[in-house]
Amino acid sequence: MTPLPPGHRFPMPKFGHLHDHLAAVGLLGPGNLHRPEPAAVETLGRAHDPAYADAFLSGRLDRDALRTLGLPWSAGLAARTVTALGGTVLAARLALRHGLAANLAGGTHHAHRGHGAGFCIFNDLAVAALTLLEEDAVDQVLIVDLDVHQGDGTARILRHEPRAFTLSVHCASNYPARKARSDLDVPLPDGLGDAGYLRVLGHGDEASGFRGLGWLLEQVEPDLVLYDAGVDVHADDKLGRLAMTDAGLRERDRAVLEACRGQGVPVACVIGGGYGDDRVALAQRHGILHEEVARRWRAERARDASRTAAARSLP
Ligand SMILES: [Zn+2]
């Protein structure tokens, strides 16, 4: 575990709790739990200034840079950071192979090319997108960022990369104060609850020119979706200002998976933001994503099996 000072508002223990929660409900096993390789410096360099990456990894960031980041440096934090980032790259590769995969961390969308911010050191979404594009594993990526905060770092890093389309659906009045320009931004009003949120996701929002996720998938035609399923849209979240419930979160995740998988698009998921003092409740909230990914996975396998059986029974 990465040591943070007692009372630090970044809920580092949630990651361990999430693992334990998913193991307890039977969703983790030797067949589906993969251990990522720490991301190499060259991999980070696809999205980040090498001087910044090197300064962070070697503990040489200055005090101002650490203050913007919001986390105190330690060797443990550096190791954890590159492993979590490796997890998103691995999830993206697994999604291309199997259709669905989910990291137990990730979604560090406030990290910029040359500096970290808002608890985000390196931008796993941008790194994963640029890595797979550079390897020609995909021609087009769509980043669906539904964390309550705008994905400003991702938007800025990928601004000049037309093969990576950035969608950010976020609370307009929330951090960051100075928003970046995503390929498509959908700012939401404070206090929006399940029904309003799900309506926007499914049917769009006239003011921002978004016509719903299904529509966007048809426009962008991605080979891969990177989905940031931040749970800070929840009513009980300490840093969110929307008013979603657990049931609403579940419907949101289900809707994203259905929209993407219904069009045959692989989806790699990351957990994104989630803040609160009850770390166990928080971990269970993040676990909704993995439960829905597992449900979708089982439904797809059952459908494949029945198709195979039907094909075999043909004369
Ligand atoms: Zn967030």
Automatic annotation (TrEMBL):
Q: Which GO terms describe its molecular function?
A: histone deacetylase activity; hydrolase activity
Q: Which keywords, in A-to-Z order, does the entry hold?
A: Hydrolase
Gene3D superfamilies given for it? Answer: Histone deacetylase domain
| Residue stretches making up the Histone deacetylase domain | 12-282
Q: Which SUPFAM superfamilies match?
A: Arginase/deacetylase
GO biological process: what's one of them?
epigenetic regulation of gene expression
Family matches, as Pfam families: Hist_deacetyl
Q: Which CDD domains match?
A: HDAC_classIV
Tell me its family.
Answer: Belongs to the histone deacetylase family.
Identification of the protein by name: Putative deacetylase
According to its UniProt entry, this protein's organism is: Phycisphaera mikurensis (strain NBRC 102666 / KCTC 22515 / FYK2301M01)
